[in-house]
Amino acid sequence: MAGLMKLACLLLACMIAAGPITSNxxxxxxxxxxxxxxxxxxxxxxxxxxxRACCSGVxxxxxxxxxxxxRQQACRCLVGAANAFPSLNAARAAGLPKACGVNIPYxxxxxxxxxxxK
Length: 118
Fold this sequence. Notes:
By secondary structure, the protein is an all-alpha fold. The chain has helices at residues 2-18, 29-36, 40-44, 52-64, 68-84, 90-99. Helix content is 59%, strand content 0%.
């Protein structure tokens, strides 16, 4: 449990630090991290099942990111979070939107070029 708390704190710190990157986006990395926080156990700690709260957060985040700046900001936040977790399961991260029934215009990975997201 202490490990999960450390991961959550690290994610939050990364999101706060990356928050000011864009000024046109309404989404902050704190908001993004709040929506994807329930996914940490599944993506970085090998939890066997995808939590319902994770998919609810992914769906809500997708519904909020309606403009190009918002989608790019959400992408930057997710890439920053992915890079903050050395134990991230890349296949699970890339497949998360599909597993939750959500279609996003980019792949969640450590190497995604968020500037190309439309």
